[in-house]
Amino acid sequence: MAVFTPVTLDDIAPWMAQFPLGKALAIKGIASGIENSNFFITTESGEFVLTIFENLSFEQLPFYLKLMRRLADHGVLVPAPIANAQGELVVALHGKPASIVTKLEGASQMSPAPVHCAEVGAMLARMHLAAKDFEIRQPNLRGLEWWHATTPKVLPFLSEANQHLLRAEIHHQDAFASTELYRALPNGPVHADLFRNNVMFDGERLTGFFDFYFAGCDTWIFDVAVTVNDWCIDLDSGELDLARVNAMLDAYHAVRPFTEGEAVAWRTMLRAAAFRFWLSRLYDYHQPRDAEMLTPHDPGHFERILRLRETREAPPLPQNLQKN
Ligand SMILES: Nc1ncnc2c1ncn2[C@@H]1O[C@H](COP(=O)(O)OP(=O)(O)O)[C@@H](O)[C@H]1O
Ligand SMILES: N[C@@H](CCOP(=O)(O)O)C(=O)O
């Protein structure tokens, strides 16, 4: 749908002069975004993406853009933010925060095979390691605290069975989050929304992760669980597809070996990852922010996944686990 803040080539010509990218030659709005206004820009030095942030503030944005810059500098495939002559990554455009990043080649792979899952697993591990010592600590804003704040807003809309499911799961997650084992899990900046539509491929070659605007600090194994729950499932039933799960986990493990604690946490994290998106989808469905929003995502998909992850054993993490 959306370009919320229209921009023309004439508008941005003077604005672009502050970036070392040469003259802007063409600009084209991107229809598919739902949060921000996005544009492909062709300049004398290549192709870029301009984002005008519609909801995030100047104060919030450095976490995301500096994180992407750091990842790009460490060889993780992500859009690289471009600094202006003053070294700023976020600059006002039409009174709103805006940024320019490099354009990734390719397209999203919505029907991934094990080979794609392996690429994603390996790059995810590289991303976790590269971001480990990132100096800005922002919590995952869709974590436990948000779950507690949001649960009462959706409960009145749910059937009794789903109210029970929601209450029982948040209780289980609370109990797990209060353990020593949970607190000792490796953690740091995570993408937290690495669904198929947020990764680009050129054939079987991964060209980049993007849409970092749900990123925050959380456990790495939670990030792996979010990714597995979208990439490695039968989309109709929500069942895990073992060939894809193993391809992703083995490739991740080869770069950053899983720990014994993560093996214990794994099933609860698969549940947490399903719960997080069930809850956000319920919230968007019952409390839409804007009448013009796209059709909300189906909460039933993650309700099914959560029920499956609660009742079935999780496929084990690869062996040769590290102590911590
Ligand atoms: N750096 C990039 N390189 C290539 N395409 C991009 C890039 N950033 C965004 N896009 C394209 O723009 C679309 C919308 O971006 P997205 O980040 O999902 O927007 P929003 O946050 O508004 O939902 C993506 O689906 C993708 O096709
Ligand atoms: N992945 C989430 C929705 C988040 O929005 P995005 O399209 O910007 O990734 C979901 O599927 O519920």
Describe the fold and architecture.
The chain has two domains: 9-102, 2-Layer Sandwich (Phosphorylase Kinase, domain 1); 114-311, Aminoglycoside phosphotransferase (APH), C-terminal lobe (Aminoglycoside 3'-phosphotransferase, Chain: A, domain 2, Alpha-Beta Complex). The chain is built from ten helices and nine strands. The strands form three sheets. It has a five-stranded antiparallel beta sheet, with helices on one face. The protein has a two-stranded antiparallel sheet with strand order 6-9. It is 43% helix and 15% strand. Helix 4 (144-154) runs parallel beside helix 9 and helix 5 runs antiparallel to helix 9 (260-286). A hairpin with a 2-residue loop joins strand 4 and strand 5 (96-102). The structure holds adenosine-5'-diphosphate (ADP) and the ligand N[C@@H](CCOP(=O)(O)O)C(=O)O. The ligand N[C@@H](CCOP(=O)(O)O)C(=O)O binds at residues 193, 195, 197-198, 211, 277, 280-281, 297. Ligand LJ64HWYM is lined by residues 193, 195, 197-198, 211, 277, 280-281, 297. InterPro entries: Aminoglycoside_PTrfase, Homoserine_kinase_II, Kinase-like_dom_sf, Pseudomonas-type_ThrB. It comes from Undibacterium piscinae.
